[in-house]
Design a protein that fits this description.
Blueprint lengths: L1 H31 L2 H13 L3 H8 L7 H5 L30 H7 L15 H16 L10 H9 L10 H11 L5 H42 L3 H10 L1 H15 L23 H20 L12 H6 L7 H20 L3 H18 L11
């Protein structure tokens, strides 16, 4: 029984290492294509369906990009400028001219179009920026020095329906005003809560996208380096030395405060908040990727890779022997098992690693202190 627990522990460790690679690559891709800012931009676009208010929201002064501001830019490229303002009668922002202002962001959310856009906006900040945007639009583009709830109510009353239909954002603001009980703080709290509910849906959408990308990356990685669960389990059962090395690495990784490559000089993925600047997130993900690569290198050609694979050796013989069909079936099964395992994600295998280690520890017989027979 102890051998099979060690094999299970070794497989969990292999899945964890591969999941770390896939998670890091997934996150790097997400940051490279600016997926989070693009999805947040789309979400805000659908929430604020008044083009003028949408522009005033970004030009409210609340959403100043810190990186651009530090370079001396007064406004980010997401705010309208004097040179790029639309012509008379045009409601769309300047960068939306030539194409419907909504469809441009739904169809073409590129790195250039989302440059400078934050990847995270909390509910309080959104509510404050929206309130300032409403007041600014009502005042003809001037930001108010101070305001009360009655000023907001008058400004909301000036919002026009969009294309002859009732504006969604106008109805939301009217509803928030009715629930504010005469307090500006409660009004902004209502708006922030409505925004947070929309962000919950956005989080689900991003999670679904990430799972699809994880599955694709995992499948490519598994097939490229030939991580066959069936083969690995067989080799671990026969090779005691390799099994003991993997078990030792797994136990080291599961130990709190370990100096193992799994925890060495790297901040955990879950400890990097979404609001962290891209530069810091990229460094954290690179560290995750490098540590996982070091661990993959320790697995050796007997467990992964195509060099010593049974299917490869059989397929190189001619005429093809009958056992090539069995090898092909086992190979396909082993690769599919690994792909499905990786798709569960690194957090799942971190938790599973701890559980298997505890099961293994509970099954060990305590050593006798005297060494004498009873």
């Amino acid at each position: 029984m102890g051998v099979y627990i060690d094999i299970a522990l070794s497989l969990v460790f292999v899945y964890l290492v591969l999941s770390l690679v896939v998670s890091a690559v997934n996150e790097l891709i997400s940051m490279w294509i600016r997926k989070r800012p693009a999805m947040l931009a789309k979400s805000i676009l659908s929430l604020i369906d008044d083009p003028g208010l949408w522009r005033s929201f970004y030009d409210s002064g609340v959403l100043v990009n810190p990186r651009l501001a530090s370079q001396g830019a007064a406004q980010s490229r997401w705010t309208s400028s004097e040179e790029a303002s639309p012509g008379p009668g045009a409601d769309a922002p300047a960068f939306g001219r030539g194409l419907d202002w909504k469809w441009k962001w739904y169809l073409f959310p590129t790195r250039s179009t989302t440059e400078g856009h934050p990847s995270f906006i909390d509910g309080t900040t959104f509510a404050r920026a929206l309130t300032m945007g409403v007041l600014k639009q009502a005042a003809g583009g001037k930001l108010p020095g101070s305001y009360v709830l009655d000023d907001v109510r008058k400004a909301v009353g000036k919002l026009d329906p969009v294309s002859g239909r009732g504006s969604q954002i106008r109805e939301v603001l009217i509803s928030a005003l009715s629930n504010a009980e005469g307090e500006l703080r409660l009004f902004e709290k209502e708006v922030g809560a409505w925004y947070d509910r929309a962000q919950d849906r956005l989080t689900g959408e991003y999670t679904r996208w990430a799972k699809i990308v994880t599955l694709i990356i995992g499948a490519a990685l598994v097939c490229l380096i030939n991580v066959d669960t069936v083969r690995i389990a067989r080799e671990l059962r026969l090779d005691t030395d390799t099994r003991e090395k993997l078990v030792a690495s797994a136990l080291d990784a599961a130990r709190p405060g370990s100096d193992s490559p799994v925890s060495e000089n790297c901040e955990p993925l879950t400890a990097v908040p979404a609001a962290t600047p891209d530069e810091q997130r990229i460094e954290a993900e690179k560290c995750q990727l490098l540590r996982a690569q070091r661990l993959i290198a320790t697995l050796g050609p007997d467990l992964i890779g195509w060099q010593n694979d049974d299917l490869r050796r059989t397929a190189l013989r001619w005429p093809l022997p009958a056992e090539v069909v069995g090898h092909a079936f086992n190979k396909l099964l082993g690769l599919l098992i690994t792909i499905c395992a990786i798709s569960l994600g690194a957090p799942f295998w971190f938790d599973m690693l701890s559980k298997v280690v505890n099961i293994r520890a509970a099954g060990l017989k305590p050593e006798s202190s005297s060494g004498a027979k009873p």
